[in-house]
Amino acid sequence: MGKDINCDMGESFGRYKLGLDEEVIKLISSANVGCGFHGGDPHVMRQTVDMAKQHGVAVGAHPGLPDLLGFGRREMKVSPEEVKDYFIYQIGALKAFVEVAGMKLQHVKMHGALIAMALANEELALAMCEAVRDISPDLIWVTFSGIRTVEIARSIGLKVIQEFYADRAYHADKTLVSRKLPGAVLKDPEQISARIKQLIDTGTVTTLDGQTLELKYDSICVHGDTPGALDIIRTIRGIMAEHRIAIKPMAELI
Amino acid sequence: MGKDINCDMGESFGRYKLGLDEEVIKLISSANVGCGFHGGDPHVMRQTVDMAKQHGVAVGAHPGLPDLLGFGRREMKVSPEEVKDYFIYQIGALKAFVEVAGMKLQHVKMHGALIAMALANEELALAMCEAVRDISPDLIWVTFSGIRTVEIARSIGLKVIQEFYADRAYHADKTLVSRKLPGAVLKDPEQISARIKQLIDTGTVTTLDGQTLELKYDSICVHGDTPGALDIIRTIRGIMAEHRIAIKPMAELI
Amino acid sequence: MGKDINCDMGESFGRYKLGLDEEVIKLISSANVGCGFHGGDPHVMRQTVDMAKQHGVAVGAHPGLPDLLGFGRREMKVSPEEVKDYFIYQIGALKAFVEVAGMKLQHVKMHGALIAMALANEELALAMCEAVRDISPDLIWVTFSGIRTVEIARSIGLKVIQEFYADRAYHADKTLVSRKLPGAVLKDPEQISARIKQLIDTGTVTTLDGQTLELKYDSICVHGDTPGALDIIRTIRGIMAEHRIAIKPMAELI
Amino acid sequence: MGKDINCDMGESFGRYKLGLDEEVIKLISSANVGCGFHGGDPHVMRQTVDMAKQHGVAVGAHPGLPDLLGFGRREMKVSPEEVKDYFIYQIGALKAFVEVAGMKLQHVKMHGALIAMALANEELALAMCEAVRDISPDLIWVTFSGIRTVEIARSIGLKVIQEFYADRAYHADKTLVSRKLPGAVLKDPEQISARIKQLIDTGTVTTLDGQTLELKYDSICVHGDTPGALDIIRTIRGIMAEHRIAIKPMAELI
């Protein structure tokens, strides 16, 4: 038995550095790599892919909205056709770097505001999934556990990996609490540790308002741009080691 | 025996339309498609690829410098590594659209200021060629006849198609006269017609200063953004028909 | 008595040309000049301002969302503070060109999706108006007749010019019919002519669904990027000449 | 008697943070604020201006090339007219924020590759100076001591402040050693301290190759994006306090 740990990476841009990619890459099994629209640039993409290869980490695309200024976190009224084209462009660009490095692109994961947009508008969600399938039906669709986009992706033949967000609070409908609200982002390693243990032992998470939620998951999503990020990831790895859960790229879990 | 006719296409951007792509596509055999850095956007790329497929036109990538404001026509001091990464990114993005359409990417052709930069700096030229080969050694490197980049591309194993510019004046060293100089761009269909006939009959072109230059070529490059463009291309097709030269995508000429 | 004719201008970008600015500028009294976010660039801005000066046309800023790819026509979830900063930036940039040309910036008019966003969200509308007032309380706020943004602008001390859209269909709440709906954009000079006459004679416009709407206006907004644009503007000027209405920049009408 | 300390600031962009602006601002007298082309965005500009106001620091514009990806550090073949328009645009945008904050824009200082371009091409240098003068002849042109751009600025009537780079090695022609060469950037506070003392005591600096160079200066340029930056600036302030040299914005030194 095994689980994957995924993290957003490669979101630096030119002179601007984001996250602790060089450290985080050693601790995860799947990297979601920025593709240049919300973050990342061609140089950063190549470096990130090379780094992933060196550490045996599988690479996925992390496409975003064309809004570098807003880091892809502001919803935009784009059409399904537009978002599909943005996905093909970004995934294609990253796929080239991955293949030039002698690897295979493993998965695709939406970035930022696209997640809320996909939850609110099934046509947009479908357009993104279709872009992934049209590029390659072998690509894995990664999204958080139990939500509607899981079914949409499956309905067109995509393999899906469901993920748990280690450091984000949940609503009862299995969506994440908005970053703008208090309590949305967890920073205390002990609290995160307790959540992970509960998840492994009981398959449940406690929501922000105290409800108990069953979650299926094969990957745990962590973030690398907060001060305590490395400690949090090491804590998660420790718990998984105690439970004899191997950490493996998601492609090996399907 | 046959020759290819290639033309830059898909350089519109968002609300901004450039060229007569819908008409030109019917008259050529290979399209050099903008990849979003100097011109083109994901939506335009998909539409252009679909249009090419519909008309049996082969598709190549036309990567440029990251300078939409200057349409990729202003030299920038980029490093070989940077330009290599820009090529992988852009070619990868277009390749995805081409493959989603069920086609195969045929060739790569430098845009704008990259040409002069490649002529002046062999390291840059090599970096671009390596990007193409790393993505796929089946991709054809297209460049104008008899210049140094032909040899550089061949030296790393790329197949090369040499091209003749129907509407641009030549220097004796086989480079093109800068657009900024008088007489650089030919617009008179009769003059262009006479040049094409001379090229087919004698394998030579007359330079701006009256010298006779031998040129090897398998493709004729035309431009679609000038008023008389369609007439010029039709004239060229007429001459080729008279000489019983079939018009074929460059991949069929290698 | 007089009226103003305003038109969006200076929305070309680099190699991309939009509209018939060189012709339209001769026929209007106020130009709304793009400021580089949705369209326009520094070079285009200077040229447009110089052209306006040469033809005695007053200049206003036409700020948009930071979305060149979508021409500022796609709503984005920006905060009031963000939109205020975008306005100050863009208006400031254009103001510099206007003052370098020895003129005075006359007005500000929202572009594209900002209009719907301002109608739906009073905080956003207020933020835009505040940006204008903070730069100079002498700047005129231009917006279409009878809507909420008129009052918001006045509430913080801005002078307001209300405009009538010559070529756009109206809803009964005085908003414009979306470009995506049939009948939204009028192209028939006779139909436009009849509307203008009705407006001048009775102060009313007939909505898309046949209702009669009273409209106050001091400026007529025309568009320069449609094939028949020049004829339409000439028609409007003809009607105004017949009615002995002088065409004057809006600053002279307050 | 007094001297100014100037530092580049406001070069963060969206989610990307650069430098220790909040700390540095307390230690300097003039801030060179990014204007959105190479770094900085409208939000960052407003925040930086507000911070400068709060700490009594004078504000200048720090315009760069339109190359966010290269942070304005890559030379581009732009025309004098283009660079002039880029300056008017960027200076105008920042000037609006400064005036909205109730302050007056103090100076303009070239960013990145523009410096080398201005040194190599007098037409470009003149175009930049003209942009500044056309916006306001009260603006101060800041550039490093003893070079040709000092004379060019003066020749068209601009006031000039010459600056000394505390942490950069010099050539004998008074230009800076390129960042790409070893020894170009000084990081050792003791070494920087010794240089500043030598400059104050003797009016000279020792070049990378050991020559002694006389330099006139009224401002010392420091950088805020290196780890030891704050210590270096504090050291400089300490030396100036010992020598009873008041630290004042450059406008007070002319």
Short description:
Chain A is an alpha/beta fold and 254 residues long. The first copy, chain A, is built from 8 helices and 10 strands. Chains in contact: A-B, A-C, A-D, B-C, B-D, C-D.
Describe the sheet with the most strands of chain A.
Answer: 7 strands, parallel, barrel
Number of strands of chain A: 10
Q: Structural class, from secondary structure content of chain A?
A: alpha/beta
Oligomeric nature of the chains = homotetramer
Query: What general outline of chain A do the C-alpha atoms trace?
Result: globular
Residue windows where pLDDT falls under 50 for at least 5 positions of chain A: none
As a percent range, the share of helical residues of chain A equals 25-40%
Instruction: Report the end-to-end length of chain A measured between terminal Cα atoms.
Output: 11 Å
Average pLDDT of chain A works out at 95
H and E string of chain A: EHEHEHEHHEHEHEEEHE
Largest interface: A-B, 23 and 23 residues
Q: How much beta of chain A, percentage-wise?
A: 15-25%
Description:
Four copies of one chain form a homotetramer. The model of chain A has no long low-confidence stretch (mean pLDDT 95). Chain A is 38% helix and 17% strand. Chain A has helices spanning 21-24, 42-54, 80-100, 113-120, 122-135, 148-155, 189-202, 229-242, and strands at 2-9, 30-34, 58-62, 107-108, 140-144, 159-165, 204-206, 212-214, 219-222, 246-247. In chain A, strands 1-2-3-4-5-6-9 form a seven-stranded parallel β-barrel, surrounded by four helices. Chain A has a two-stranded antiparallel ribbon with strand order 7-8. Chain A has 254 residues and is α/β, with parallel strands linked by helices. The longest helix of chain A has 21 residues, at 80-100.
